[in-house]
Design brief:
- By secondary structure, this protein is of the alpha+beta class.
- It contains four helices and eight strands; from the N terminus they run ααββββββββαα.
- It has one domain (about 5-140): Jelly Rolls (Sandwich), CATH 2.60.120.10.
- The chain has helices at about 5-15, 25-35, 110-120, 120-140, and strands at about 35-40, 45, 55-60, 65, 70-75, 80, 95-100, 105-110.
- A hairpin with a 2-residue loop joins β4 and β5.
- The termini are far apart.
């Protein structure tokens, strides 16, 4: 199967909460650096305790997130794996992620992402706005 075209990538990225404040044009810029990767069932994508250098968006399939062998969550379409890897390159991932079935993901590498942000200040501002909103929501919960 061929790499998704830019329209398919934008549609996939529109469903990602972290990117919800971006315009279709901005999503297309991110889509231009996103590459499809495929994994068979049972493949480890993230390993707890290891540093990670990319964000993954699930476009087909499912992934089990676990910590110390205990299942925490099953991620599906539009869920993001490794989002903090884009913002914090030093801390290892606290969870492992393993595919449960044939899975297709969009991979956005940290270096490519930083290059994109350096040239697109409005994307940076929109992402920070989303992060601040998420932080406020956590802090303001009773």
């Amino acid at each position: 199967m061929a790499e998704p075209n830019i329209v398919e990538k934008v549609i996939a990225l529109e469903g990602v909460e972290l990117l919800r404040n971006l315009t279709p044009e901005q999503l297309a810029r991110i889509g231009s650096i996103a590459r499809e990767v495929r994994f068979p069932p049972g493949k480890l994508i993230l390993e707890a305790g290891k540093a990670f250098d990319a964000l993954y968006v699930i476009i087909e399939g499912s992934v089990e997130l676990s910590r110390n062998g205990e299942m925490l969550y099953t991620a599906h379409l539009h869920d993001v794996l490794g989002a903090w890897a884009l913002f914090d390159e030093n801390d290892p991932m606290p969870v492992s992620a393993k595919t449960l079935e044939d899975t297709r993901l969009l991979r956005i590498g940290r270096d490519d992402f930083y290059d994109l942000l350096a040239d697109n200040g409005e994307i940076t501002a929109a992402l920070f706005s989303t992060l601040v909103q998420r932080f406020r929501k956590l802090v303001e919960q009773p």
